[in-house]
Amino acid sequence: MITADALILFGITGDLARRHLFSALYELTAAGKLNMRVVGVASSALTVDELRGRAREALEAAGTDIDEEVFDRLASNLGYVSGDYRDSSTFDRLASELGDTTCSVAYLAIPPDYFDDVVTGLASVGLNRDGRLVLEKPFGRDTASASELNRIVHTHYPEERVFRIDHFLGKEAVQNLMVFRFANTILEPVWNRHYVSGVQITLAEDFGVEGRGSFYDHVGVVRDVIQNHLLQVLSILAMEPPASGNADALRGERVKVLDAIPALGPDQMVRGQYDGYRGERGVAPDSDTATYAAVRLEVDSWRWAGVPWTIRAGKGLKSTVTEAVVEFGLPPRLLFAASEDQPGPNRLTFRTAPDVEINLSLQAKTPGPDLVSGPVELHLQHDRTRGRDPYDRLLEDALRGDQTLFARQDEVMEAWRVVEGLLEDDKPAFRYDRGSWGPPEADDILGENESWATG
Fold first, then answer.
1. Torsion-angle region of residue 211: left (phi > 0), alpha (psi -120 to 50) or beta?
2. Of 218, 229, 379, 382, which is the active-site residue?
3. pLDDT by residue (tens digit) across 344-383?
4. Catalytic site residue 379?
5. Is the distance from CB of 91 to CB of 124 less than 8 angstroms?
6. CATH code reported for the domain at 169-387+408-445
7. What parts of the chain have a pLDDT lower than 50?
8. What CATH code is assigned to 6-136?
9. Domain boundaries, the chain
C-alpha cells in the first residue's frame, strides 16, 4: 500500500486524544514520519490555535520534554473542523481543509453510534476513495452488533483498508511473545499437549473504574478485556508458525486458534464484583456488572487438545499484573528422593506488566545432605528503556498501510462467537474485597490439584 498523505482524527477533543494521540503525533513528527496534514474533527467550537494549545497541554501532562522545533512542525500541520457528524456540511468543510489529498487515514476515536454517519459523510465527499479507516474498540457489543458494524463499514471501505485498532497488540511486550515463541527453537518440541499441562493468563488491576463508571457499567470485564486483549494473548501463545511474515498470514493463524475454541457457556465462568463498585460515579446502584471473571476453556486443535486454558481478569485486585504462565507436566518421582518429595512442575512465565519479564522455573537439588529438589528461577528482565507508545507504533502502521498488528474482521467475529454465551450469564456476581485476588468461588473453576499461579 502507498503511504498516506493526510490524517483525520475524529474526536480530537476527547480523552483518548489527550492521553495518547497527541503524544503519538508528537513522536511521529519528531521521527520525521508525519510530514502531512493532520485535521481534527469534533463538535467543540475551537480555533486552530486553541487546538494547538490543547496539544501542548496534553504533552506537558504526559511529561514530554517538548522540543519547540518539533512542536512547531506538528502545530503547523494541525487543522481543525468543528461540526456535527450528522451534518453533511461538516464533511464539505473537511474536504476543503484537506485540499488535494489522495490517500487519507480517518481515525474514528468516537462512540460507535456515530460510525455510520462518519463513514457515510466521508464517502459523500470522496475521502473513502483510496483512503483508510481506523476504528477504535469495542468492535460491537456482541456478535449481532459486530456484524452490523462490519456491514456499515464495508458499505464504503473494503476490508483491506479497514484497521481495527486495539492498543494491546501494539505493546512491545505483547509483540515480544511472538518473537519468543518463534525465535527460540528450544521451545517448539515441548510447546504442545504432550508436555504442557495448563496455561493461565492473568490481567489484574489494583484500581477500580477510575471515573469511567458510566462506560464500564455497560461493558463489564468480558467485553472490556477478555473478548479482545486476553484472547489475543491466548491466540499468540497457541498459534502455529505463520507461513510468511505478511499481515494476513499472521492474522490467519490467530483466527485458526479462535476457531478451535468451542463456544463458551456460563458454567465455564465465575463472575465477581468488588465491594464499593456500586458506589462509583456513573454506576447503577443495583448494578450486577462483573468487574472480575475467571474463565476456563480449551483449544481443540492437534497441538492443544485436552490442555486447560484459564483466563482471569479483574479490577480492584491485590496488585496490577499482566502475565501468561505456561505450566509443564510433572516429572516422575525421583527414584533417589523420599516419597513425599515430589518435584514441582516447570513453569515459563511471560510478564508484560508492570515490568517486562520472562521467568523459567526449574528444579534443582536443595542444599543439604538430602537428595530433594526445589525450584530455581532463571530470570530475564528487559532494560527499562523508554519504549514506543502503542499508539505511536499503530498510527505509523496505519499511515503505511501495514495491517499486521490490527484485528481482522473474521478474528473479531470469532472472538465474539467464543464469548457470546458468557454474556448471557444471569447468575449474581460474587462479591469480593478490594485488594484481594477476587472471589474465593473462582477457585471452583480450577481442576483437581490446580492452583492459581499468581496470588
1. left
2. 229
3. 789 999 988 888 888 998 888 788 877 777 788 888 776 5
4. no
5. yes
6. 3.30.360.10
7. 384-385
8. 3.40.50.720
9. 6-136, 169-387+408-445
